[in-house]
Amino acid sequence: MIRPYFPVAFTWMVALLAGSGCGDKERTAAEETPPQSQPRTPAAVPGFTRVTDAMLSSAAAGPNWPTHGGTYNNQRYSALDQINRENVGALVPVWIYQTGIAESFVTTPLVIDNAMYVTTPESHVVALNAATGQKLWEYVPALEDTRLCCGPDNQGVAAYDDKVYVATLDARVVALDHRTGAVVWETRIADPEDGYSQTMAPLAYDGKIFVGVSGAEYGIRGFVAALDARTGEEVWRWHTVAAPGDEPVGWHGEWKETDPFGAPLQRDILYEQELVDDYSETWKRGGGSVRSTPAYDPRTRTLYVTVGGPAPSLDGAVRPGDNLYTGSIVALDGTTGKPRWYFQYLPHDVWDLSGGSPPILFEAGGRTYLGHAGKTGWVYILDAATGRPVLRSDNFVPQENLFARPTEEGTKILPGANGGNGGAPVAYSPATGLIYTTAIHQPMVLASRFQPWQEGALWLGGSFRLIPDEPSWGTLSAIDPRTGEIRWQRQAPVPLLSGALATAGGLLFVGQGTGTLDAFDAATGQLLWQFPTGAGVHGSPVTYAVNGVQYVVVASGGHYQLDTPRGDAVIAFALFDKRPTTVFTRYPEPSYTRYGPVRYGAARQVPASQVAPSPR
To answer: Which one of 352, 383, 469, 577 is the catalytic residue?
Structure first.
């Protein structure tokens, strides 16, 4: 359910206490530091390694996690197996970092040779020592007035060469020095006063930084752009909303009556065509947000982008036609930004069911395929070279009245507007051959009404209403992309929006809105381990290794849209017997002059040194 978000100003007061004293006793280093606190091995120090295209192009992540999806294929699969089915029960927390901002926390941390980069709500960037959680630096942007529909989310950063890149809520891209957090350059890509914002994690590739804009709920014309990674200059821009005369078929498309797999969309095509002249300019504010990080194939230099829904969300009468390229997967030439193919799985969306998970790439039978878990409740499998649809999976959430038209009185439709897959990254395991997706079951009533566009106002063309007394819950599904069948499935007590993480240890890590991080057997779905984090877990877990120790880390902070318990913690786990040796904080005996206690009423000799001289 979409609700306006009003940014909160966080004020911090820091008291700096300084003191000095003199002492009468010298201490040796051995006396100050107990022997048992000495580390067995030197403390791990971040290497601040320059990130290369080769690092990002690996088939599987590990020991680093250098991009949002682990590697360019977005599989969120790690080759690390120190933590596995047999020993995951011994996983324990080894450090916790608290950001101080308790709001929607959906970040995916990046880790490069023990340097971790985390984004917080309101687009802060924090660099941490990945082995200890020690803060190295923090970047706090001075955000301009920004219109947001759904909370101050930020999904993460990109790392490339010697810089870290963040897409801010107020539609800037900022490059930071990876050692210090100092601003190297920043580029304004759109005007936040016109409704543009950014929540996605950028993607670095081939000397460029890819970003997409959000704000369809305010009537933007969406776009994606590539910036020069060194200078911030724009290299190319492609609009996610086609103009009526654009090739091949423009904004109006082919007037599809069904989705690509034959599901009727209940459209009145003749009526829509009669309205074309009346609403000939709607495409200029046609929506098309891009909230998820694309997949990238470096062999063909192709970007695979998920485009969200049209604007206004629920009133299709004012935007006749298929509304290309909303509700689509689009393959773009990474060098020029020109489309290579598109697959529109939801023409003329009037249910806010476009978008969903970041696309993934995987190999099967010598071919490359693309998978996408949609808000519709289906996983779509396409041929990555051509965009030709291969199959649509079994529905991984309940579907009821799907694609019925919203009315003024309201129509109950499942999935509700939050999904299906509400945007959570999926995982793919080459070991099991399965795609893993979290999902939301949240019944809603969708009501449509005419609403003219007004600057600065939400432009939904209707309303989304939760249904009292109807339970909401989540699903975790393991889906075979060769057949579309659900291999195993689990029901969660509240909607799921955490990304999934698959590992070579046979594990699947998933966060729960109730506040736990869970580890499942990836092959069977058996729950093997669980840890309560204290807040809803909607961040996406990642894994990495430092000095031979494998860690799992996740952000725990709740979610504005789903209203789960808030928090501000980044929590890292390792096996109990592999956890790093703790270097204890030194607490030496303070050194200053003490004068002893005084009992009230007792005579006390005042030291001569403290007797004031007599006045003359």
So the answer is: 352
